[in-house]
Predict the structure of Sulfatase-modifying factor enzyme-like domain-containing protein.
Amino acid sequence: MRGHTERLAAPLSPEDQTVQSMPDVSPTKWHRAHVTWFFETFVLADNEAGFAPYQDQYWFLFNSYYEAVGPRYNRAERGVISRPGAHDVGRYRGNVDERFRTLVDGLDQGSLDKLAGTIELGFHHEQQHQELLLMDIKHVLSLNPLQPVYAGAPAERSEPDGLGWVDVEGGLVEIGHRDAGFSFDNELPPHQVWLEPFRMADRLVTNGEWLAFMADGGYRRPELWLSDGWAQVKTHGWAAPFYWIELDGVWFEHTLHGTFPVDPGLPVSHVSHYEADAYAAWAGKRLPTEAEWEHAVRSDDAQAEVAGNLADTETYHPRAAGPSTGRLRQVYGDCWEWTSSAYLPYPGFHPAAGAIGEYNGKFMSNQMVLRGGCALTPPGHARASYRNFFPPGARWALSGVRLADGGVRA
């Protein structure tokens, strides 16, 4: 897990790893240091004999949002920290890794069992930052007029296939993590939800369909938009998805493997919840709730195995859905899928004690839930119950749109 983070950073120069292109983006070297700080803070500090931090100021620089641990550096100004440099961060990682191995090798089984949950959380935390590292460097490189390439290769140009629908029975269903294996605290506890019969689109909305929305004045028609969304359109001048630019009447899209004409058959990506909701209104449909999404996926036998265009494919961009199968397609991978559900605690949710309890619960306000996974998501990090979340106006994440409606066919 730790080695993979370094492999993701390897194509980037030290200068690449220092840039913070907007407040929501963190420098690559900060991601590398922060996940190291996590192990140093939550594993070594309370268990290593004679513990002392690798460097006193790192404790301050690389804390993200853990108030209980102490003060931290302003998130929006991480890019002005030229030192430690990317090489020094690598030395920090190596030091903590060596101390971590020494600690674990010397623990008795009882002590190791007590630490296992925190260690496992640290690994999954690092996977989250592997995905964020890729999302963030995509934005950094998008601002460079040289249009540098990170990795991956464009797919052959494709055309959208017909949109199909999958009918899903409603009723009293169980939502939340209930399988063997790891989950974050926000996926718990399992609970029952009543759902009316509904249906979900069998694939994600495509670029070609989004171009039709734009051509029909989608970004100029206030009747399609939530009030806050329309305010964002006017304030920021939204007229297309985040990484699209129009040159001589042709729309181009920036990707991690370069900038190319928009491919009509690929899923539209880097759209906000507000845009997703407006598109659904334009199409006469809606976004699924997170409970509908999870129940539909669990009801589809084809989704028993988590597989799709995830980060292990190394495409680093959404791909076309492929031939219709009569079942749900693109459930895992390609794009995180916006739902209509606000990010709120499940009934009976209780944050963990101590600083670890700040991991998810403190963000359960002013956020919307996304489900599935994207082309930058580590394959071991996708599951039916996973709850991703972003503010409704966020566009830099690799997010897309799947439609839903009631069980009545249009």
User: Anything to note?
Assistant: Residues 109-142 form the longest helix (34 residues). The chain has two domains: 2-142, 165-406. DSSP finds nine helices and 14 strands in the chain.
